[in-house]
Design a protein that fits this description.
The chain is of the alpha/beta class. The chain is built from 18 helices and 21 strands. Helix 1 crosses helix 2.
């Protein structure tokens, strides 16, 4: 198949080819894998600037996406894509195999760095692409620390993400500093924080959160505009209809849990555990300390039944195993997503209710948009990244119908708070992407002028 890049993809390709490092905030459905493979091919076989490329990706993406995408396009099908997955001996044999692009999942990336640092040959990859850099946004994460160990031996580094800073602009510092060694946002996080932020929530000398100083966001955007590119997908997507379905249930046990941290056999040791227990109760069941589920209500099952009864295929995102078990008990024909087999059946119209954990369907699952256009969030996630990536499995390029996203929200529960958090994070994220998008537009205009 001939690769015909959209304007947004051309911007990303040109930016990567013109720079040794970039943070590419490409919207879901923007075709970032095709962009990266095009750049790899150009750098490796036309410009001769790189010899071996390492791609670090979520496990499902590493297993299913990169080799299939390379084989899809005429100009990249000659690329030898090697998957560094499986047990240790299989991974070692894969590293010794002839190849151009070596794909490893994030967990095995740590093993790979340790192996190569300890070897006499040293780090063998002059180009590294981090596909979905969720594990690299925190300087305390092992992924970030290990990449920094070999950063000086990497000539070209590209970070691909849909949400560069889903929670706070503090998350930009590790990513940008990973690329430029602190040239733009400073070499120390404390200095970056003191320059652009002020303490927000605190207890005495303990600071729990930070908020931006007035106008600081514009200064940050200006500082990173040459190393971060944000572009829209360039695809005219169908309308997305967001629908909140409120449900009610007997709140006695929920309120008891909320107020005392204990309800029957269920207890919470701290506030964080309590939040999880309340989320489960809002869904309809909750685990006790022995992981035995206790039934609370069927309100969300009843709401889901009304949606399923409409007769259209439904993709339902769930969080807990007891959620899936109760849904399957109510809907025996429901199918739990298990990879290529269920994907093929979904696209063929053979599945009416597909159950998926957002972390399973959030990255590297392409084709769901061809099987349906109705999404149900049975359990709402705190993570904006999980929420947006999972929803974009249906609302993306190739979808011909308007997409309806149903959110099942238990009234007067933590569900309502989660919806507000997602809305606030989404607003901040959009502000970041819109600001950096201005630079992409100027870049495009400059190229046209030239």
């Amino acid at each position: 198949m001939k690769f015909l890049p959209r304007p947004s993809q051309e911007l990303a390709i040109n930016r990567m080819l013109d720079s040794d490092y970039q943070l590419l905030a490409l919207r879901m459905g923007a075709g970032k894998t095709g962009v990266a493979l095009t750049v790899i091919n150009e750098l490796m076989f036309n410009r001769f600037e790189v010899q071996r490329v390492l791609v670090v990706a979520p496990l499902r993406v590493a297993q299913l996406v990169w080799h299939a995408e390379a084989a899809k396009w005429d100009h990249t099908r000659h690329l030898r894509v090697v998957k560094v997955l499986g047990d240790q001996m299989t991974r070692i044999r894969a590293l010794a195999a002839p190849g151009d692009v070596f794909v490893v999942n994030r967990e095995n990336f740590l093993w790979l760095v340790k192996l190569m640092v300890a070897s006499k040959g040293g780090w063998p990859f002059d180009c590294v692409i981090v596909d979905e850099n969720k594990g690299f946004k925190d300087r305390n994460s092992e992924s970030w620390k290990h990449l920094m160990k070999v950063r000086s031996q990497i000539d070209k580094l590209y970070l691909l993400t849909g949400t560069p800073a889903p929670n706070t602009l503090l998350e930009l510092w590790p990513q940008v500093t990973m690329m430029d060694n602190g040239d733009r946002l400073g070499r120390r996080l404390t200095a970056y924080r003191e320059r652009y932020f002020v303490p927000d929530k605190r207890n005495g000398s303990i600071i729990y959160s930070w908020r931006l100083k007035p106008g600081a966001d514009k200064l940050i955007y200006k500082a990173i505009e040459d190393v971060m590119l944000s572009v829209e997908s360039g695809v005219e997507l169908p309308e997305r209809i967001d629908n909140v379905i409120e449900v009610e249930f007997d709140m006695q046990r929920y309120l008891q849990m909320e107020q005392t941290f204990v309800s029957g056999m269920v207890s919470a040791a701290n506030a964080a555990v309590l939040a999880g227990k309340l989320r489960q109760m809002a869904n309809g069941a909750v685990y006790d300390d022995q992981r035995y589920p206790h039934w609370i209500h069927d309100a969300k099952l009843d709401a889901l039944e009304e949606i399923v009864d409409q007769g259209e295929p439904v993709l339902c995102f769930t969080e807990y195993q007891h959620d899936q078990a109760r849904i399957i008990d109510r809907f025996p024909l429901a199918v739990v997503f298990d990879g290529e087999k269920s994907m093929a059946n979904w696209k063929a119209g053979k599945i009416k209710l597909l159950l998926m954990h957002p972390q399973s369907g959030g990255h590297g699952v392409d084709g769901l948009q061809f099987g349906g256009n109705v999404i149900v969030w049975f359990a709402l996630p705190f993570s904006l990244d999980s929420y947006e990536q999972a929803t974009a499995r249906i609302h993306r390029s190739g979808q011909d119908e308007n997409v309806t996203v149903h959110h099942l929200v238990a009234k007067n529960t933590i569900d309502e708070k989660i919806m507000k958090v997602l809305a606030m994070k989404g607003t901040a994220q959009q502000k970041l992407l819109d600001a950096v998008l201005i630079e992409a537009v100027n870049d495009a205009k400059a190229r046209v002028t030239v």
